[in-house]
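Consider the following input, taken from an annotated entry for Membrane protein (Coprobacter secundus subsp. similis).
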Amino acid sequence: MNGKNIVISCCAALFSVCGAVAQQRLPLSQAECREMALLHSEGLQQADNRLRQAELDSEIATAAYLPKIDGSATGAYMLPDMDMMGMELRMRGTYMAGISLTQPIYAGGKIMAGKRLARIGKESAGEQLRMARMDVLVEADNAYWTYIAVERKVRMLEGYCARMDTLRRQVDAALAAGMATENDLLRIEAKYSEVRYQLQKVRNGSDLCRLSLCRVIGAELDTEIVPTDTVVVASEPGRLVADMVGRPELRLLEKQVEAGEQQVRMARADALPTVGLTAGYTYYGNIKLGSTIDVGGGVMMPYTQEFRDGIGIAMLAVKIPVFHWGENRKRVRKARYELRNAELELQKNSRLMSIEVQRAVRNVEDGYLLVGTAETGLRQAEENLRVTGNRYAASMAPLTDLLDAQSQWQQAESNLIEAQTQYRIYETEYLRATGRLEQ
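Applying the prediction step yields:
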C-alpha cells in the first residue's frame, strides 16, 4: 500500500512538473507581442499618468474663473482684561466665525493665459503618450523580428551541421575503402568544427534575444517563446509618403511654441492692473464690557454688557503696478527670448525629422530590393549546391567545390533571413517616423 502511494505521488509530481513546463511555453504572434508590450511598459504607464495630471491641471485652471468661498472660525482667551476709559474689556472665550467670497474680475489676462497653458499641457501630454506608445511598439517589433531571425539561423545551421555530419560519414567510409584521402577528411572535420562553432554562437545569441523579448512583453525570463509569424512575406511597399505632420515629436515642438506665446502673455499680465471683488459675513460673540454704575444713594453696582452680533462687508480692490524698477518689462523680454528659442528648436528639429523620414523611406525601398536580391541569390546557391553535389557524387568535382557550394548556400540563406526580418523592422520604423504607427 505504501509503495502504491509512492508511485501515485511520483506521478502527481511528474504531472505538476510537466504542467509547469507547459505553462512556460508561450506561442506569440506579432500582434500579441505588441499588446503584451503595451500592457507591461512602465514608461507608457508613466505617460498615461502624466496625461491624467495634465487633465487635472486643466480643471484647476478652469476653477480660477469661479468665485472662491472660504470659511473661518477663531477662538480667543485674553488675559488680563483691558482698561477702556474706566471700563474693563473682557475677552475670555471670545469667538468669531465667518464666511467670505472672492471673485476675480480682471487679472490682466493671466487667468485666460493660464487656461490656455493648461490646455496646451494636456494636448502635449497626449502627444507624449502617443510617442511613448510608438516607442514601445518599435521596441517590441525589433525584439520580435530579431528573435525570429536568430531562431531561423539556428535551424539553418542545425540543418547545415546535419549535412556536414552526413558528408563526414561518407568521406570516412570512402577513406576506409581507399577512395578518399586523409586530407579530405581533415577538410571535412575543420569545416564541421567551424559550423558547430557558429551554431553555438547563434544559440547563445538566440537565448539573449529571448531574454530581451521576455523583458519587453513582461514574461518570466525562463519562458519559452514560440513565434507564430515565422513566414515573412515582403510585399512591395508601393508609393511611400514622406509626411511627418502626424508625428508626435513635431506636435510637441509646436505646442512648446504655443506655450511660449502664452508665457509672454503671462509675463505681460504682471504689468497690468488687477481687479477683484470680496464679500463676507462675520459673526462674533462673548465680548464683555464690565463697569460699575451708581444706582442711587451712593450705591455702586457692577454692570456687564455682552456684545454678540454679525457684520457684513463687501470690497472692490484694484491693484495697479506703478514702479518695480523695470522688473515686469524684463520678464516680458525674457519670455520672448524663450519663445524665440522654442521657434528655433522647432525649425532645427523639423529639418532633422525630415531627414529621418527620408531615410526611413529609403530604408523600406532598399530593404525590399535587398529581399529580392537575397531570394535570387538563395535560388542560385541552392541550384549550385544541387549541381555540385551531383557532380561530387559522380566523382566529377572535388570535395573543395562541394564545401564551397555549401558555404555559399549558408551565406545566401543567412542573407535572406536578415533581409526579410530587417525589412519588417524598416516598415515599423517608417510608420513611426511618419507618425502613423498604431496597433
